[in-house]
Amino acid sequence: MKIVVRLEPATESPPDVSYRWDADTDILSAQLPANGTGDGMSGSVGLEGTDGSWLILDVADGRINGVEVAVWPDVRNIAGFALPSNVENARVVVPSRTSQPSIASLEMATRLVAEADTAQQNFHFKVGSGRGTRTVRLGRDMLLDIDEKSQISGLWLLNVPPNPADQ
Known about the structure:
By secondary structure, the chain is mostly beta strands. The chain has one domain (6-97, 106-166). It has no helices and 14 strands. It has strands spanning 6-9, 18-21, 28-31, 43-49, 54-60, 63-71, 75-77, 87-93, 105-110, 112-116, 123-127, 133-139, 142-147, 152-157. The strands form two sheets. Strands 1-8-12-13-14-11-10-7 form an eight-stranded mixed sheet, with no helix packed on it. The chain has a six-stranded mixed sheet with strand order 2-3-6-5-4-9, with no helix packed on it. The protein starts with 5 loop residues before the first strand and ends in a 10-residue tail after the last strand. The mean pLDDT is 87.
């Protein structure tokens, strides 16, 4: 199963992202403020990497309100790591499935690749085969890659504070 989204015109400024590291684990949470009501799925979308890594998207009324990196894939540090140059402002909606509208949790086994700048401040999680994409802004420091079939193909977390456990 692929995670299909619908893009709509942005009606507000991108919200700030709040990052939090769990004190006992390496779980990173990135939260956006809940933003009203909408039409779409409410629940969680789990992306399980073939290496055992996990990204969990928190979705309410079709809007992605948060991300947890529950189990990290191996992160490739890349010198010259480049952020996307063309980012669209759009409202991203995760629609309810018409065949099963009451489903509140989805899990998808896929390939997850994590890349970062050498300071590990900016992360790009590639989902699946890394098809050609467009990038949309969910929050000031959270971006989503969408492929030509309107499926999630990547996630960007920018300006991530250092993990206190590493200091």
